[in-house]
TrEMBL record:
Domain of life of the organism encoding this protein: Eukaryota
Organism from which the protein derives: Rhodosorus marinus
Transmembrane segments: none
Keyword Transferase assigned: yes
Alphabetized GO MF terms: ATP binding; protein serine/threonine kinase activity; protein tyrosine kinase activity
Residues in Protein kinase domain copies: 1-224
PROSITE patterns, alphabetized: PROTEIN_KINASE_DOM, PROTEIN_KINASE_TYR
Annotated stretches, region: Disordered: 450-470
Any one Gene Ontology cellular component term annotated for this protein: cytoplasm
Descriptive protein name: Protein kinase domain-containing protein
GO biological process: intracellular signal transduction
Length: 470
């Protein structure tokens, strides 16, 4: 902690006080020791190697978590926040980045720097903006005093929406439009979500704070008994690759082998067991790997499956939810406090948001775009004991492939720590998206150039004029 910063010291005091009150809770990051010297204060926290919940979301296609997995984590989150509120603590910064995971992928709520401690009869707080801009509640946007418990319910609803839909319910690059959608409670939900999930989110994302149920009541919602719940599958993951490798698996094999060698990973070719693969999936080659510094053993298999185009996700305005919320709001007088678009544009809160840090989110990269990342060495993960940077750039699924079959790299966890495997998967995915895509694009350009030359070169001169791709 830097010396002389009173605001930072106050946040640190809140975090220490809250974590001490929650000592021993199975889903709260453990504060193990507080150290201090003449200039700094140090908090020694529990080591969590599984990253955050946002990293788990990125393991799934289109950043969408199945409801069974979302239910598994939302139950843990709701029970944790219900315990916090019963002890007089409100978190005030509930978002996916602060839901950390241990090596067994169990949730641990962290970052209590914005937390507040309250008495049972009074949990009202000032208008200071806390948390992510996409998780701000309507009462915060309007500059009102707010209930810490009620904004926790709102931001938990935003987090649940992110898990099931892949982006925040209120998301717009224009600050005024963003504020308007928050205050009016206007958002969209995919039609493929269960009725229970949509109903639960509508209760949590109610614009009237008094109408939002407590976490104790929310845990009794039918959604939690509407189906199974289970942790994410972390022992076998997939990385989409360029469609070129459907017909050039040998090129992918050479590139992957070269990358593994550069990162000091021991490997050798293995036999493909097509009987162990799912229906309609065919294995092209298999590499058995062992990373000594991470003590991880894993299997890489290039596979193909039929290319079925996913139906375009249909969305519907949740007008009924908004109207129902306003019906309750009118009775309580809340609707009178809503601002028009013009008032919001000129309000103090809007001016404040122009300097407010926009936290990176899973929706900030457009679908189908593969950022050009400089992949870190596998070995760097063994040297770093801190949690990964969950606010950094992330990778999306590969662009739509149009061939009859599409290729993907199957990564199977064999032996080691689950948390280390998830980290390795993220690094391996970054490397694949750089090396495999760059090589495939170059090869595709050569083929396109060759085809253009074929069209404009006399047949008698083709052999001398057209360079063959390597």
């Amino acid at each position: 902690m830097p010396p002389g910063n009173c605001a930072y010291m106050s946040r640190l005091d809140h975090e220490i006080e809250s974590l001490k009150m929650l000592t021993g809770h199975p889903h709260v990051v453990e504060l193990e020791e507080v150290l201090e010297d003449d200039e700094n204060m140090y908090l020694r926290m529990e080591l969590l190697g599984g990253g955050s919940l946002i990293d788990i979301v990125r393991l799934y296609p289109n950043n969408l978590l199945p409801e069974e997995v979302a239910r598994y984590y939302m139950r843990q989150l709701f029970e944790t926040l219900e315990c916090c509120h019963s002890l007089g603590i409100c978190h005030r910064d509930v978002r996916l980045e602060n839901m950390l995971l241990d090596n067994k992928a169990k949730l641990k709520l962290g970052d209590f720097g914005q937390s507040g401690v309250f008495t049972a009869a009074w949990d009202m707080f000032s208008t200071t903006l806390v948390g992510s801009v996409y998780s701000l509640s309507p009462e915060q946007v309007l500059g009102m005093c707010y209930s810490g418990r009620k904004i926790d319910v709102w931001s938990a609803g935003v987090s649940m929406y992110c898990l099931l839909v892949g982006h925040p319910p209120f998301y717009d690059l224009d600050s005024t439009d963003l504020l308007t959608s928050i205050v009016t409670g206007t958002y969209k939900t995919p039609l493929n979500l269960s009725v229970e999930a949509i109903n639960l989110m509508s209760k949590m994302l109610n614009v009237d704070p008094d109408a939002r149920p407590s976490f104790e009541k929310l845990l009794e919602h039918p959604w939690f008994s509407a189906g199974d719940e289970y942790p994410p599958v972390l022992d076998k993951l997939e990385i989409p690759v360029h469609p070129l490798y459907v017909r050039r698996p040998d090129l992918a094999e050479m590139i992957i082998a070269s990358v593994l060698y550069q990162h000091k990973t021991h490997f050798h070719l293995g036999a493909v067991d097509n009987d162990a693969l799912p229906d309609k999936v065919e294995g092209m080659w298999c590499i058995k790997c062992h990373h000594p510094s991470l003590d991880l053993k894993f299997l890489l298999t290039l596979c193909t499956r039929p290319n079925t185009l996913d139906e375009e996700e249909s969305e519907v305005e949740t007008g009924k939810h908004v109207q129902d919320g306003f019906a309750v709001a009118r009775d309580s007088g809340w609707a009178d406090l809503r601002r028009s678009h013009e008032v919001l544009e000129n309000s103090a809160i809007s001016r404040t948001l122009s300097q407010y840090p926009h936290k990176r989110h899973i929706a900030t990269t457009a679908p189908g775009v593969v950022p050009q990342l400089r992949a870190q060495s596998f070995g760097n993960m063994a040297e770093s004991k801190s949690a990964p940077n969950v606010n950094g750039p992330h990778l999306q699924a590969s662009p739509m492939q149009t061939s009859a079959r599409r290729a993907f790299l199957s990564v199977s966890f064999q032996e080691g720590e689950t948390g280390a495997f998830v980290k390795l998967y993220r690094k391996l995915k970054a490397i694949c998206d750089e090396s495999l895509w760059e090589a495939a694009e170059k090869q595709t350009q050569r083929l396109e150039e060759r085809n253009r030359l074929v069209q404009h070169t006399p047949s008698s001169e083709i052999g001398n004029a057209i360079p063959l791709p390597h």
